[in-house]
Amino acid sequence: MGSLATGPADVLSWPPPCSAALLRFLALVCVLVTTCVFIGSYTKFRLKTFHPLRWMGFVKNKCGLLKSCAPNFFAFKINSGAANVVGPSMCFEDKVIMSPVKDNVGRGLNIALVNGSTGTMSKHGYFDMYNGDPKPLEHFLKLIPEGMLVLVASYDDPGSKMNDELRQLFSDLGSTYAKQLGFRDSWVFVGSRDLRSKSPYEEYLKNNPESNKYDGWPELLELEGCVPRKVF
Ligand SMILES: *[C@@H]1O[C@H](CO)[C@@H](O)[C@H](O)[C@H]1NC(C)=O
Fold first, then answer.
1. Is-annotated flag, keyword Transmembrane helix (predicted)?
2. Is 19 exposed, middle or buried (0-12, 13-18, 19+ CB in 10 A)?
3. Which candidate, 36, 44, 115, 76, places its Cα nearest to that of 200?
4. Is the sign of the CA dihedral 62, 52, 214, 226 positive or negative?
């Protein structure tokens, strides 16, 4: 009988002795989760750039890719420009081919042509799409031969001088988004004249005041991967 007695103390002793520690623990978990969500939503692209494995120096792949490319694939990484402040950069087979440090990038569309068999760059240039004349770019695109990889990165404004002819020329290289590219959009792309369908290597962000990361520009874009070598 005595052992079954439950005194009023058992019912009324609230909070039980362990609850203070438990509450503190839950509060800590709550703070950690909130912090992670907060950091995650504000640094989406940074998480890729500063992947823990990259930080710790474990990544030794070409162009800093997280996975190495299979034989007969070329490693590439393209960053668009950030607002009108930091220029774009392109790495191909572990070689930086265009970047602000190399001083060969500029406002508008930055384009590098790489031989799809040998992986060597044969031409590069940038075309001012805000103030420039679209004719030189039309000429440049029309002369691209088959078997050439075309790497493209936007900087500041790639869209103001876009016209139907340019949209078609980029679409012919496998672009999905050239049709809608506009003022201050972010765009990165790898294409080729011999693609039979749309290129799988493309990212696009519309300039949208509601969702822009920077004041007046969307977030910069990063595109990386392995592109198959064209074997004769
Ligand atoms: C790529 O380089 C090879 C070897 O030099 C050459 O035969 C081929 O024509 C080049 N391809 C293009 C598209 O220029």
1. yes
2. exposed
3. 76
4. positive
- Pocket of ligand 1 contains residue 212 by CB under 6 Å: no
The number of angstroms, rounded, from the C-alpha of 152 to the middle of its chain's C-alpha atoms is 12
Residue with tokens 């040998």: 118
Q: Which atom of ligand 1 is nearest to the CA of 117?
A: 1
H-state helical runs in 109-229 = 135-142, 164-172
All residues at 6 or more sequence positions from 92 whose CB lies less than 8 Å from its CB, including other chains: 63, 74, 75, 76, 112, 114, 119, 121, 151
Residue 129 class from Cβ within 10 Å (0-12 exposed, 13-18 middle, 19+ buried)?
buried
CA distance 30 to 27: 5
117 Cα: distance to centroid of ligand 1 (angstroms): 7
Q: Are 97 and 79 in contact (CB under 8 A)?
A: no
User: What pLDDT is recorded for position 220?
Assistant: 83
Cβ atoms of 103 and 91 closer than 8 Å? no
Q: For the chain, which ranges sit under pLDDT 70?
A: 1-18, 36-59, 232
| 84 Cα–ligand 1 center, Å | 35
